[in-house]
Amino acid sequence: MSKYRFNYSSIYLEDSDVPKNKLNIVDSDEIHEVENMLLEQSYSFLIKEIDSKAILDETYFINLHKKTFESLYDFAGVYRDVNMTKGDSQFCLAQYLYSQSKQIFKELESDNYLADFREDKALFAQKLAYYQGELIALHPFYELNGRIIRLYCDMLALFNGYRAIDYSEAIDNGAYIEASIECVQYADSSRLEGIVFEGLNSIKGEF
Fold first, then answer.
1. What kind of fold does domain 5-199 have according to CATH?
2. How confident is the prediction along the chain (207 residues), in pLDDT tens digits per residue?
3. What residue ranges do the domains of the chain occupy?
4. Which residues pair with 6 in a beta bridge?
5. Predicted TM-score (pTM) above 0.85
């Protein structure tokens, strides 16, 4: 898989796809293991913490990245200030990133963090996929965007009485990557909507 490309700087160790890190890890497999461990720890904590009083705003989203990865990366919770591409996908230009992020979360707040759509699974999946697609196109962090965006969307699902979304099949067969590319290149979240719908299961009587 190709790594991110930046227009005038890089967070990676020289000739490597390993980001510079606080543990001085130089092996790609090892850094991925640590990232996954930290992510699992966050899930374990956040699933217990989420309730109907949570405010899933931009600050919450940024803090997911910061609190999950600050023990590993200096850039945890920091929005990038450089342009970023991956393959043929150009993510939100850095000069518009902050304003676009605020617009996304303002719109999400106006949608009551999807609480107004929770009773209709199909509509909820449509809305959640739309916002997930917007965040994928935004790609605000230097690294670990996909995992934090999925974590955030899982928190939205839990907040609204669903379980964490099961992306496993779509990730394994490449459908999730294709859906993400369509979100970035064509502003089309319809394929992602199907994946979210299939991966959603409700929790009865949780809140």
1. Fic-like fold (1.10.3290)
2. 456 666 556 789 988 889 999 999 999 999 999 999 999 999 999 999 999 899 999 999 999 999 999 999 999 999 999 999 988 899 999 999 999 999 999 999 999 999 999 999 999 999 999 999 999 999 999 999 999 999 999 999 999 999 999 999 999 999 999 999 999 999 999 999 999 999 999 875 444
3. 5-199
4. 84
5. yes
